[in-house]
Amino acid sequence: MTSDSTAASALRPRRVLIDCDPGIDDALALIYLAGLHAQGDIELLGVTTTAGNTSTAQTALNATWVLEQCGFSDEHIPVAAGVEVPLEVELVTTPETHGATGLGYATASGVSPGGEWRELWERALAGGEVDLIITGPCTNLATWLREGHEFADFASVTVMGGAVLYPGNTTPTAEWNFWVDPHAADEVFRAATPGHRITLCPLNVTEQMLIGPGEAEQLIDALGDVPIAATLPEILRFYWEFHRSVGVGYTAQIHDLLTCMIALDQVKYSAYPASLRVEADSELTRGTTLAFRGEQLGGEPTVRVLERADVTSAKKRFYETAAFLD
Predict the structure, then answer these.
(1) Is 195 exposed, middle or buried, given 0-12, 13-18 or 19+ CB atoms closer than 10 A?
(2) Each residue's pLDDT tens digit, 236-277
(3) Which end of the chain is less crowded, N or C, counting CB atoms within 10 A of the terminal residue's CB?
(4) pTM of the entire structure?
(5) Which of 19, 207, 206, 23 is nearest to 101 (CA)?
(6) Catalytic site positions
(7) How far apart are CA 63 and CA 59, in angstroms?
(8) Average pLDDT rounded to a whole number, residues 85-114
(9) What CATH architecture applies to the domain 4-325?
């Protein structure tokens, strides 16, 4: 027989923090999480940002604006800018991929939020179990760990990043998030322990999550009168043009959206156990992911590495969830 407290816990929506660097694919991830929040499937406790696709102040402004365009003010879903620069290397951003301010041909309006990211995390954790999703560089989590906190603070950690025995999108072997702050990524995965769930969503799988003009029309139809729908064509057009310029076609890889779905068990997927290291000190191989399956590092594996996901059902789930914002 289940106690009343246990039953209430089972019915409680998952409590979520996202740490991101919007960024076009991050923006779509935020739309999805806002839809899940509106639907009552999750409680989106807050958004913290890192520098990567653009500066930390700009990513925080972009996140705030996207959520407002989805119907949620900072009072409903707080946003806070995180650490301003990578742990040890100079910050590099990517206007050629995401546009001058990170949202393609669109520009966020308003003022960057003034909250403190550590306080946001602490408030969230004080209320119970929290799932942390990281779709930008790992700078904030690595800083959190350096300051004496532990992986055990979070119920789960899911990271978008890396390329495992697969071509990188920044160098021949490195993915962007890990290349921007390789020391942070390496410290995070070195700190992982077998007892705590951390999942890596690498390019190997996330590149399969493609949204082109046809899919965008379905998304806009699902959003209806939600204000973000009117701006999505200008946000996505820049991303489509970039992907066409690098030979992918007139479509876009939406890494961060799929990562959120994996983190919250919203689609079918499979993953294998491994331990990870990220090359941080060699300029030639900076950001390269080294994945050791099973017990090759001499101990139990500490990470689950995504190896496949049902991207067809993921897109369908995205449209259905976006409709809850209308």
Answers:
(1) exposed
(2) 999 999 999 999 999 999 999 999 999 999 999 999 999 999
(3) N
(4) 0.95
(5) 23
(6) 255
(7) 6
(8) 94
(9) Alpha-Beta Complex (3.90)
